[in-house]
């Protein structure tokens, strides 16, 4: 059995594995896709001390760093169930889609999250070519340009306020008849001169010239006509879904499916820890996931030295 079994090979999982392996304990990482979300992006400019890198390059660097240690890396393994230890100090079991099962004294869950996609024509085609999901990450790439934000909840309105300080103009579109964001955010939104809000305006298509985004089409839900807006970027803010469906009934999750963790990365099941975008820790970013992975790993190590027989 492993001392520490990490599920997920993104920034949080890689960091957790390195911290565990450096303690000289038996460490494994099982991931569906080693590298995680960073594989889906090109420019990364906010991973502190690395002024500029690309997603696939950072993913490779994460894996190379993990491979410097004695860590069992099991790629292309999708976890489908966590069976917590029946008794205190017992072994937890993780079952995989392949039929395999692994046992471990502690488990660190770092299965991340995925942005909800619009599912309209042009969205996939122009991903990383004008279609973006993270204003903290990609906002500065649109400096002085025109962008749209799709989504009328807190994250959409926050993104519009944030981007308005960087870009030339923001059009906020929601399919709803009103914004759902907190009143204080809506007041701030309406006080900014370079934001236009369009209600009842579901996006129908992202347009581009084959290389980059150059506009979008939305439907007027009341009138029925289609309208075109010329712009350079589309930020999709319709939800971030944690990859935690497989944990239902084991560790405690919030209503939104985020794993509840304490300051040490511990979940509600003793010996099971969690880190990164899959958890309640706010502000989903690489630098935060890396720190949280280290923290959960030290938490797991602390748990091991306190629960092992003398
Ligand atoms: P993830 O990166 O999501 O990794 C999760 C890991 O778990 C993956 O290996 C996945 O395959 C695996 N997994 C999932 N489910 C299972 C399962 N059931 N069984 C086994 N394995 C599983 N952040 C920044 O700081 N700067 C940026 O510039 C930036 N740009 C971004 C651009 C895009 C397009 C996207 C989508 C995100 C961007 N982010 C950026 C956010 C950043 O990528 C995430 O915050 C970070 O990757 C979270 O790390 P994580 O390890 O928690 O999860």
UniProtKB/TrEMBL annotation:
Which cysteines pair up through disulfides? They are 134-137
- Sites binding NAD(+) sit at 146-160
Look up the record and name the cofactor or cofactors this protein needs.
FAD
Q: Under the GO molecular function aspect, what terms does this record hold?
A: flavin adenine dinucleotide binding; NAD binding; NADH-dependent peroxiredoxin activity; oxidoreductase activity, acting on a sulfur group of donors, NAD(P) as acceptor
The chain's coiled-coil residues are none
What are the boundaries of the signal sequence?
Answer: none
Question: Where is the chain membrane-spanning?
Answer: none
Keyword Acetylation included in the entry's annotation: no
Keywords carried by this UniProt record: Disulfide bond, FAD, Flavoprotein, NAD, NADP, Oxidoreductase, Redox-active center
Q: Name one GO cellular component term.
A: cytosol
Binding positions for FAD? 3-18, 267-277
Per UniProt, residues of the FAD/NAD(P)-binding domain are 2-293
Keyword Oxidoreductase applies: yes
Report any one BP term from Gene Ontology: response to reactive oxygen species
Assembly information from the UniProt record: Homodimer.
Record's function text: Serves to protect the cell against DNA damage by alkyl hydroperoxides. It can use either NADH or NADPH as electron donor for direct reduction of redox dyes or of alkyl hydroperoxides when combined with the AhpC protein.
Q: Could you say which protein family the record assigns here?
A: Belongs to the class-II pyridine nucleotide-disulfide oxidoreductase family.
Protein known as: Alkyl hydroperoxide reductase subunit F
Source organism: Azotobacter vinelandii (strain DJ / ATCC BAA-1303)
From-to range in the entire protein, with total length: 211 to 520 of 521
